[in-house]
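#onboarding

Welcome to the new folks! Below is a worked example of what a typical request in this channel looks like: someone posts a single protein sequence, and someone else replies with the predicted structure as tokens. Don't worry about understanding the tokens yet, we'll cover that in week two.

Example request:
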Amino acid sequence: MFDEFVEHAAPSAYSHVPLPQVQYEGFEPSPYNDEALVEADVLVGGDGTRLSSSPANTPIFDLGRVQYTLPASLVSLAVSSDVLAMGLSSNVIILIELSHAEQVVQIPIPRKPTEMTIHRIFLDPSGRHLIVTSHQGENWYMYRGWKKPRQLKSFNKLVIESVAWNKAALLSSSHSLSTREFLFGTRSGGIFEAVLDAGEDLFKSQERYLQLLFSLPEKAPITGIKFDVFPPSDPKNALVIVTTTSRIYQFAGTPGRRSDEGGRVFSSLFATYRETAPKISELPGNLQYSELHFFTPNADQALSLPKGLAWMTAPGIYHGSLNFDPNSDDHIDSTQLLPYPLSSSFGSPASPPSPEVPTSIALTEFHFILLYRDRIIGICILNGQQTYEDVVPLKPDEIVRGVAADPVRKTYWVYTDQSIFEIVVGNESRDVWQIYLAQRNFDVALRYAKTAGQRDKVLSAQAHAFFEEGRYFQAAQCYAQCSVSFEEVTLQFLDVGERDALRSYLISRLERTRKADLTQRMMLATWLVEFYLSKCDELDDLCASESVANDVENMQTERTILEEDLCHFFETYKTNLDRNTVYELIQGHGRTDMLLFYAAVVGDYEHVIQHWILEENWLRAIDTLNHQSDLQLYYRFGAVLTRHAPKEMVDSWLRQPALDPLRLIPSLLQLQHLPRDPLLPNQAVRYLNHVIFNQHITSSTIHNLLVTFHASSPSGSPGDDGPLLRFLTTAPSDPLTGKPYYDLDYALRLCKKAGRTQSCVHIYSKMGLYENSVDLALEKGDLELAKTNADLPEDDPQLRKKLWLKIARYVVQDKKDIKSAMRFLEDTNLLKIEDILPFFPDFVVIDDFKEEIAHALEGYSAHIDELKKEMDEATRTAESIKQDIATLKSRFVTIDAGERCSVCAQLLLTRQFYVFPCQHTFHADCLIVLAKEYLPAHALRRILALQTELVKGNQAGPVDRPATATSNDVRQPTRQRTLLSANFASPLGNGTKAAGSLGRNILSAGDRLRDLIVPDALASVVSAPGWIPSMGLGGSKKVGSDKDTEKQAEKLRAELDDVLAGSCPLCESVVGGLDKPFVNPGEVDTAWAL
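Example response:
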């Protein structure tokens, strides 16, 4: 049994899985530091630690024992797709899937060892189909998952020596039960085609098809067979290779039909060779066994084709590469015979060395693995040198059987009659780069070089080879990637005069130089600039000479390409060049175009603009200015460029909104006195209008400058005031002050100096000097302008009328045009005919305006009629109001006898009371108590004053008091104060009292005015005495009181009544307290506590 998994008894030094090789692409060591090459050869472990072992010390192969004890002697072993199959001498088949090595399946063949002896087993590439053949001619078939094999009866008496499986069909379908068409060779030299199917069918056996295709004439055992169809995308051709111990056959042709369903594919191909002999190669010898092996790159892909083959013969190993050209007669190319190594190491030192045939071989990508009776040897295919040798640890009486290879997973196994070993391919391509390097196959050597040191050696050798062959450009590229010293390479190229190749080398070295090496990069870049410029001069001289007149076009094309390369070089390595040094180099060669290009690349636009200004190429200078973002250059060169190209310069300014217009004023002033075509617009005005109205610049300097340009423009026609007046009218104003941003006084002085009358009038109006504006307009005889300004003071009708009177006086007295004066009245509704009559002369004919007088009189008459109607309407309204007042005095409300006061809940009729439209009723004293809690302070002061006046009036008339007054009446005010205090302290027991409490809470608690108001005293004087006869107060009529005093008292009582009963205190307090809290801040109220 396997010890739960397959273990390799390899030495501890190689027990781990080989580490992947580190690729140093893009991180080549510095050519100036040879120690870096040594460090690059050090591998890095998976945990980041550095390992001491380098790829050169990693073994190519490693032989390890598989820890598994065989239950019987091992006869044959096959492996494919990680499925290991073993045939034992006890006629037991053992199957192990290496991905689940702990699961070992043993399937016995129902034959005794004395009845049948296993000869070989064959496993298909997918690992699903297994064929077991015996020396007695019995053949058995088994499919993965079966518990027992099934005998192939139609294969009876056939000893199978080799099988060619249909790899493309088996690997492309992972769930197929059929083997599809496969070929096998027998011991008697017969080639058969067969199809097996593992499907369960009661009416069919697993042997779907079997046919003999071809019999070799020598009747020798077929030791190897292989077929492939090609091309993979459209398989129209097939190649079958068959070997015996001394011959190799090639059968090529077209298969009968595509093998989609299975059956008779190769019949037609082999039928063509019944009359014609196939391609045969013979290597005679007396060897009784032979093997045929193939190596297929990407073997796990179904349509992959083999690359090479190896055939073990008596003279040696016959090997070559396969050619799948359908038109080729021989499909095996580059054939060689590798003799077996001498056997001096196997025998005694005294015996003469002689080649010994191995027991078995295997083929890897670069090596032949030869298995001898006690050791294993690896020989490189490329040079035939032995690269590996190891002893097979055998037990006593243990016999080596052979080598088995997994064609899909590329694993290799050595098996004896008692043990299994695995050959681990560790670093097979370790020395391949050296072999190809020795063969001067540098490209392939680079492909297999794994470290920077190895690549350096290959590139160095390749560079020297190219240089010796005169391929200097290729040598330059290789030199740039290897560690050959910079001085050596440059001197070599200079000695042979290959400056172009040297330039290529310098560029490559510059590309690979670290960015931190600033000095080296700058030196290389500067030297390259000198090379480029020298080459350009050389090409210029060649183009100018007559010796190459026929080749001038090619020279010019080469020069153009070189200049483009130089421009690209400037763009790429501008940071590695010193600006002043490059300027001197370019100027020394007289390359002005390159100087300007380099200056633009490094952003030195100042240099470019200065050049074009010196050349007086103003448009190119402005174009350069437009292609850069430094605003300082606009300010620096604005004056000179504006003077010579104003329109283009202003266009440039308009495309750059970040410019500060204030800093462009010196440039704008260049345009003030320049001669200008009157048909063309003023460019300064165009720019200033843009920044004011589009960019919303509010600087007074900019606004004043625009006024200056407008006012100073030559006035050749009366309409010249239009642009200035248009700006003054539409200029933006300060939203806070409402005044324009330009200085009004400054603008007025300029307009007066330039004689801009309309503009002066507008400025006067902006300044609020409307009279001056009208006077100036009339002075210039512009009546319409005067009318326009007369209507501007809309908020001052008196001023407007005054202005219109000035215009009227001008029309009547100065122009003396009576008819125009009459039409003038139609332009305004502020003046009437009578307003302008004083301006008429004393002796004037009335016929010119008698209609206007008549219309005026008619208008006055109509106005008088309207006033009369309004007076009549007012009289009727007054009468209606008087009637309403009288009705209100007689208004009454009916109440029940049991009606109670809304405050004290006592019967309402027991004392003087008030009834409100909201149906709330109060005693007079209760109303006073409630009202004084919500009334404001000024109302309380008025009530207190009225209370004082009324009480004084009552005390002045002692006859009003009854004769039976007691001493208690004298102390009544004290008692009333006590009652008032009780009212404040007693809690309210119903909703009415709660409303009153809410009204009290609205007022501030510290107002002492409320304490001075005595409700009972006010209640006794608030109404005229004798209102209830049953109360005994009717007899207290005033006798002999003064009528004036009585009227005064009635007036005071009426006023007090209006203050107290103006509104219901309950309703008023509720509405007023909606936004007040129930509990005032700082007040402790436990009424809401649970």
